[in-house]
Amino acid sequence: MKIGVVTFPGTLDDRDAARAVRYAGGEAVSLWHDDADLKGVDAVILPGGFSYGDYLRCGAISRFSPVMEPLIAAAQGGMPLLGICNGFQVLAEAHLLPGALTRNHELHFLCRDQKLTIEKTDTAWTSSFSKGQEILIPLKNGEGAYMCDDQTLAMLEGEGRIIARYVGENPNGSRNLIAGITNERGNIVGLMPHPEHAIDSLTGPSADGIGFFTSVLKAMVK
Amino acid sequence: MALDTVLIAQANPDAAQPFAELGLKPDEYARIKEILGRRPTSSELAMYSVMWSEHCSYKSSKIHLKQFGEKAVKSDALLVGIGENAGVVDVGQGYAVTFKIESHNHPSFIEPYQGAATGVGGIVRDILTMGARPIAIMDPLRFGPADAPDTRRVLPGVIAGVGGYGNCLGLPNIGGEVVFDQTYLGNPLVNALCVGVMKHSDIKLAKAAGAGNLVVLYGAKTGGDGIGGVSVLASETFESKGPAKRPAVQVGDPFVEKVLIECSLEIFAEDLVVGIQDLGGAGLSCATSELASGGSGGMKVQLDKVPLRDPSLSPEEILMSESQERMCAIVAPENVARFLEICAKWDVTATVIGEVTDGNHLEITFNGELIVDVPPRTVAHDGPVYNRPLAKPAYIDEAAQQVVNPPLPVTAAEIRETILTVASTPNLADKSWVTDQYDRYVQGNTIQSQPDDSGMVRIDEKSHLGVAVATDANANWSYLNPYEGAKLALAEAARNIATAGAKPLAVTNCLNFGSPEDPGVMWQFAETVRGLADGALEMGLPITGGNVSFYNQTGDVAILPTPVIGVLGVIQDVRTRTPMSFKEAGLELYLLGATDSNLSGTEWAYLHNMRGGTAPIADLAKEMRLIDLLLEARPLFGAAHDLSQGGLASTLIEMVLRFNVGAKIEIANPGISLLSETPGRVLIAIKSGEVAQLLALAAKYKIEAAKIGITGGSALDINDSSIGLDELRKSHTETFKKLFG
Amino acid sequence: MAKIVVDVMLKPEILDPQGKAVAAALPRLGFSFATDVRQGKRFEITIDGEPTAAQLAEVETAAEKLLSNPVIENFTVRVEK
Amino acid sequence: MAKIVVDVMLKPEILDPQGKAVAAALPRLGFSFATDVRQGKRFEITIDGEPTAAQLAEVETAAEKLLSNPVIENFTVRVEK
Ligand SMILES: Nc1ncnc2c1ncn2[C@@H]1O[C@H](COP(=O)(O)OP(=O)(O)O)[C@@H](O)[C@H]1O
Ligand SMILES: [Mg+2]
C-alpha cells in the first residue's frame, strides 16, 4: 500500500507523516510539490508545516502547486486524501473542503496536548476508531480556528461530516469545537491536530494518532 | 556616487576618513594604515571597522577566553573545537553533534519580535554551516521586572519572535529560561541555542581552499539591513545629501531559511562544497575574510555580482549588510552546475561571486575597479587585543557583610503561604504561557522539553541514541561571586543532564555582561571565565565554543553578570531515561545531597529584596560523584528532579503538578529545608524495595541520601500543611496569564 | 509606474480576533474613540506605466483567486495616485 | 457614524517577506502585471458621529503607539466616506 506524502517548500511534518505511515505498516512515497506526478500512490497525505511561510494566508499559495492538479482530480475520484494542519488549510483553500481556518482567538501559536472525540468512523481515515472514542494528540498551529457560514455549519452538522471535535475548553475559537471534517464521500479529511506526532508515547503524548494511518490502509485493502 | 578605489587611496593618501564614527580608535586606524602601507579605501575601512568591533573581534575578551584552550581537557569526543562556527562532539555510532549559543540582546530590545527571530535564525545558520541538520533549539531569556510596562512590550514580542521563527523552521524548542530582574529592564537578554546532528564524514569547515574553486553566494538577496552605522561612509566621504535611510533592524524570513536549510543539506549530501560559511554579523566582510584566511588565503570577489534587494546600496554597504538568510560556499568548478541546479530546485538564488586564488590577498572589485586589497587574516583574526583594566567592585565586600535572614515559615499556615508564593512568583511560576507558543513535537524525536530538567532528542530511530542539553545561569550567585557563579552554573547544567540519565560531554556558553570599559564589569567577566575554565577542567568537560555579549547596561548600571552555560550529554537509549516526576503513588522520595542554611542569592532572599551575602562555594568533585551516582543508580529511579532556584519547595511543586500525583513530605526545619538553594541536590522517587540498593550506591559515592516523604494523593502535604493540587496548579499557572495573557 | 491597492477585509459576519484585540487594547491606553475595529490586509502592487483596463481586470482576478479567500473575505481594488 | 482607516506598511527599505512571497506567486498563476508587491495592514475604526479634530489627533497617536511599530513601519490615517 503506497501512501504519498507531499512536500511543499516550508513543509515541516512530511518526515513525521511518512514515519507514521511506516509505523502503520504502509509504504510512504514522497511527492514533490513541483512535480505533477502522483507516482501511482493509493492515498495521499498533505502534512503540516508552514508551506510558503504561511504568508498571505495559510495554504493559499501551495494550493496552486503543480502536484495539486492531479491530486484534486484523484481525490474527486475517490482517492483517500488527508490534510493535517497546514494540509487542512490547503484543502480548504483549494475548496476540497468547505470553510476556512483562521487566526486562533488568542492570537498566539498554540502547542499543546489536546483531547478530541472521534465522531465519524466511516471515513477512509477514521475507521480504526470507535464512535465517541476520546483520543489525545498534539495540537500546534497559529491559525486553527475553523470558520464557515451558518448554512455550511448546519450542513456539516446535519450530514454528520464533523469527524472530530475538541473536548473541553475551545483551544482556538473553532466553530462548534470543530477539529476535523470530511467531504460527503468520506475520502477527503482535514484535521487540525497532529496524529503523526502521536504514534508512540515515547515521542508523543500517546499513540492514539496511529489510528488515522491504519484506517486508510484498511480502507485500501477493501 | 564616486567609488573609492585602491588606486585613489594610493593617489590621495591624506583624505580624511570617518573612522571614529565607525567605532575605530585612532591607533586602530593607524594600524590599518600600517598593515596596508596606505590609507584604506572606504570599503576596506568598512570591513576593518566592523570586523574589529567588539562583537566580531572579541578584542576585550580574547585575552581571557584563551584559558578555555590552555586549561582544556584532552577529550577524544571533541571533533572540532573553539574557533569554528560551532564545536562538534562525537556521540558514538558515527554521529557527531554540534551546538552553540548566541546572544541577540540589543536588537531584541529595539524590535523584540524581529530581534528574537533573527537571533534564532543566526544560530541555526551557524549549526547548518558545520554540515549538520539542525534538530532543536533552546532560548535562555532574561527580562526586566515581570510587571514593568516595558516588559509587557518586550516579552510577548520576544516569545512570538522565537516561536515565529523556530516553529516555521520546524525545529522543536526543547527548553530555555525566563528570568526577571530589574537590571534587565533596558537590557533584555535573548540567547538562543541550536543543536545539530550529522555523520562524522559530513563535518564542514569555514575554509576557502584550492585555487580556482569558486565562491558562491546563495540565499536571500542583499538589502540594507543592519547597516545604519556604515552610512556615514557614504554621507561624509561622498555625497553631502547622504544616502537613503538604512534600517538598523534586520527582518527575518524564516521561510527562506527553512528552504535554505533543506537546500544546503541536499548540497552537503552530494558533497559539493569545499568550505562554507554563513553570513551573520558583518555579512560579506566576515564571510569572505574568514573563508579566505581559513583556507590558503587568496580570494577574488566581484562585488557587483551580489544580487541586491535594494539597488541603491553602495559597495561599502553591500560589504557590511547583515541581511539574513544568506550563505557563502566554496565549490569546485566541476560541481558548480549541480550546486546551482539544487538551488534552482529549491528556488534559492545562487550566484558565483568570485574565486579562490593563490597568494594571500583578498581582492574585491566593483564594476572592474579594485576597491579592496587586503591580507584577509588581518581583517578576520589580527584585530586589536585589549587587556582592559579590571578591579574588584566595592559591592562584593559590602554584600558579603550583609546578613541575609528573610522570614522563614514555621507554622502550617506559613508553610502553605510560602509554597503558594514560590509557586506563583514570576521567576518560578509555570512557563507554559511561553512554551505553548513553541512547537516541541516537530521532527518527531522530542523525548523531553519544558518543564523537564533538560531537553532531550532522539538522534537515531533504530538504536534510540539521544542527546540531552541544558542551559543554566544563576546571576544572583554570579553577582556575589562571579568565579563560583560560573562553576555553579556549569555544575547545575551538567546535573540537569544527568538527572535524566544522560552523560555530560561538552560545554558551550554565552557570557552576558555590562560594559568592558568598566573595570568592575571586566573583573566580573575575568572571574567568570576563570571559573568556567577551571570548572570545565575539573569536571573533564571540553568547552566547544560560545559567545560574548558586552555593553548590556543602562547608564552606568550593568546587568547582573549572566553567564549562560549549556551542557550537552549523550544517552545510549532514550527509552531508559528517568522522567522528572512520578505517575505512581507509594514511591519513596529521597533527597540526594545535603542542605545547608545559606540563603544568600536564593529566590526567597530576592523576594525579600535581599541581594547580599556570599555565594556557595562549588564542590565540583562532589557534583561529579553525584552525577556518577545518578548515572549508575538510574535503573532504580522512578523519577529524578534537580533542585535549583526555589529550592526543595519549587522542586516539589513542579513534581507533583507534572503528572498530577501528590506527595506527603515530613521535614525538620521546614524553612531552610524548603528554601535553601544549596547546590548539588536531586530529589528522586524510588520503590521501597530498591531503597537498600540506592543507599549502598549513595554510600559508595559519598552522597547524603535522606528520605523526605512518599508519593500519592491529590495534595502536596508538608508536615501539617496541605495544599490541594488544583489550588496549587492554579497559583502556579495563573501568573503568566495574568501578566501577559 | 503606478500603484494599485487591494484591500482585503474579513466579511462582517466573520469574527475578527485581531480587530477585537485592538479594540480592547485602545481603552487600556486611554483611547476612547473607537466603537469597533476591524483589521485587514492591504496590498500595494507596483506596475510599470499607467494601468490598462485589461491589467485592472487581471488584478481583480488575482485578488479573487489569490489575495483573498472568498469564503471569509471581501476585497476592493483601486488605483492610487 | 464614521469610518477612520489606518494603513500600516513596512518602510520601503525593510524586507517584506509576505509581499515577496505574493510577488513570486503571481507569475506562477499567470499574472504578470506586478513589478513589486508590498503587504501591510489596514485597520477600519468605527467612531460615533463625525470625527472631531481632537479624535483624529488621538487616532494618530494610537496609530503611532499601538497600531504600528515606528522602527519598521509607516502609517497613514484618513477618514473614509
Ligand atoms: N565565551 C566563549 N567561550 C568559548 N568560545 C567562544 C566564546 N565566545 C566566542 N567563542 C568562540 O569564538 C569563535 C568566534 O565566535 P563568534 O564570532 O560568535 O562566531 P560566529 O562568527 O560564528 O558567530 C567561535 O568559535 C566561538 O565559539
Ligand atoms: Mg558563524
TrEMBL record, chain A:
Record key words, sorted: ATP-binding, Cytoplasm, Glutamine amidotransferase, Hydrolase, Ligase, Nucleotide-binding, Purine biosynthesis
An individual GO BP term: 'de novo' IMP biosynthetic process
Protein name as catalogued: Unannotated protein
Molecular function GO terms recorded: ATP binding; hydrolase activity; phosphoribosylformylglycinamidine synthase activity
Signal peptide: none
Natural source organism: freshwater metagenome
One Pfam family recorded for the sequence: GATase_5
CDD domains in UniProt: GATase1_FGAR_AT (cd01740)
NCBIfam families in alphabetical order: FGAM_synth_I (TIGR01737), PRK03619.1 (NF002957)
TrEMBL record, chain B:
Record domain PurM-like C-terminal: where: 211-365, 585-712
Keyword Chaperone: no
Entry-linked Gene3D superfamilies: PurM-like C-terminal domain, PurM-like, N-terminal domain
InterPro entries: PRibForGlyAmidine_synth_PurL, PurL_linker, PurM-like_C_dom, PurM-like_C_sf, PurM-like_N, PurM-like_N_sf
Gene Ontology molecular function, alphabetical: ATP binding; metal ion binding; phosphoribosylformylglycinamidine synthase activity
Annotated GO biological process: 'de novo' IMP biosynthetic process
Xref: SUPFAM superfamilies: PurM C-terminal domain-like, PurM N-terminal domain-like
Alphabetic keyword roster: ATP-binding, Cytoplasm, Ligase, Magnesium, Metal-binding, Nucleotide-binding, Purine biosynthesis
Location of the PurM-like N-terminal domain: 83-198, 452-571
HAMAP family referenced in this protein's UniProt entry, alphabetically: PurL_2
UniProt xrefs under PANTHER family: PHOSPHORIBOSYLFORMYLGLYCINAMIDINE SYNTHASE SUBUNIT PURL
Name of the protein this chain belongs to: Unannotated protein
Organism: freshwater metagenome
Lineage: unclassified sequences, metagenomes, ecological metagenomes
UniProtKB/TrEMBL annotation, chains C, D:
Protein name: Unannotated protein
Gene Ontology annotations of biological process type: purine nucleotide biosynthetic process
Keywords, ordered alphabetically: ATP-binding, Cytoplasm, Ligase, Nucleotide-binding, Purine biosynthesis
Species of provenance: freshwater metagenome
Xref: InterPro entries: PurS, PurS-like_sf
One term of GO molecular function: ligase activity
HAMAP family in alphabetical order: PurS (MF_01926)
